[in-house]
Amino acid sequence: MERPENLSKRSAILGKVLKFINAEEWRDYGDYMVFGLAMLDESSHSVLVHDLPSDFLERYRQFLEFDHAFNAYVDQKISTERTTLKARPSDSEFLKRLRALPERLLRLQAQALDLEVPPTAEFTPEEFLRQLKEQLALKDEREARSHSSVPAEHDIDGLDSHYCEEVLDTLELIVSRASALEAVRTESIPNTKVRRCFEEAMRCYLYGFNMACAAMCRALLEAALKEVIDPDGRLRPVKDAKGRGASYFLTLVDNARWSGKLSNELTGSAKQVKEAGDAAVHDAAKFAIEYPAKKVESLLDRTRQILSELYGHSS
């Protein structure tokens, strides 16, 4: 059976609804909610589409698109400053949106933001952006002078808006990745640390954080192997002829195979998980080349199978 192109129908629906919420174009009436207030007769709560000018819907669509682009530009700036090491968002994408607006609508949006709009001279997208950036810089300066550790209300709303968008943008990926995983029985795992690490590794994978997923898989396998193979911590890696000790992780894996708690196939898989986790922590460039998303998916699946086999033999 062919998989549908969009696995998450809810992400598309919620994405449309979110545009109205961010534009304050919605109302909660208790038993139901209305999105798109400009098209609503509030006295009867009926839709006025048949009474609207012929070009109203197009202008309303342009307003929503602008509001979405504006919020994305401002909210990304707020989130970038607080939660990433990236540079501030580029002006180019927002400027492209501004250029798509008719000048009349651009003027209306500028007036709504208290920008200075000349009554007769041309008002350009570049001028709109210049004044907006000055306005945002003044807000930053005022907040810096206040020395307040509490985020301003518009910052909280901006973060809320930005991360709602981010979660919705990721929802399709999450559903797609979750649906690709095989079903493996792992309910026999008693160790809460191992279960917690597995849940974190799974969420890293679902959200597309491949390096973090590989590192977590390595960590949880070592914790599981230690509990099953060396609970008292007595196992010591055998030294080679030059006096170098073998990896404790690999020693655990080999002992799991010798004791019959891990098959030859999954022994090899456990060693591959270690290599991937080491690369994720110590060599990001190597990891990016050697471990594409599909390979990380395979590593996670194998990690689940190893856990199932380890604890299946130990129960």
Key traits:
single chain, about 325 residues, mainly alpha, Four Helix Bundle (Hemerythrin (Met), subunit A), two-stranded antiparallel ribbon, two-stranded antiparallel sheet, 12 helices
How would you describe the overall organization of this protein?
With 315 residues, the protein is mainly alpha-helical. The chain has two domains: 9-155, no CATH class; 186-314, Up-down Bundle (Four Helix Bundle (Hemerythrin (Met), subunit A)). The chain has helices at 9-22, 56-83, 91-99, 103-112, 125-146, 153-180, 192-206, 210-229, 248-258, 264-282, 284-290, 293-314; strands spanning 26-28, 33-35, 40-41, 46-47. It has a two-stranded antiparallel sheet. Strands 3-4 form a two-stranded antiparallel ribbon. α2 (56-83) runs antiparallel to α3 (91-99), α7 (192-206) packs antiparallel against α8 (210-229) and α10 (264-282) packs across α11 (284-290).
Secondary-structure map with pairings?
Elements: H1 9-22, E1 26-28, E2 33-35, E3 40-41, E4 46-47, H2 56-83, H3 91-99, H4 103-112, H5 125-146, H6 153-180, H7 192-206, H8 210-229, H9 248-258, H10 264-282, H11 284-290, H12 293-314
Antiparallel strand pairs: 1-2, 3-4
Helix pairs in contact: 1-6, 2-3, 2-6, 3-5, 7-8, 7-12, 8-9, 8-10, 8-12, 9-10, 10-11, 10-12
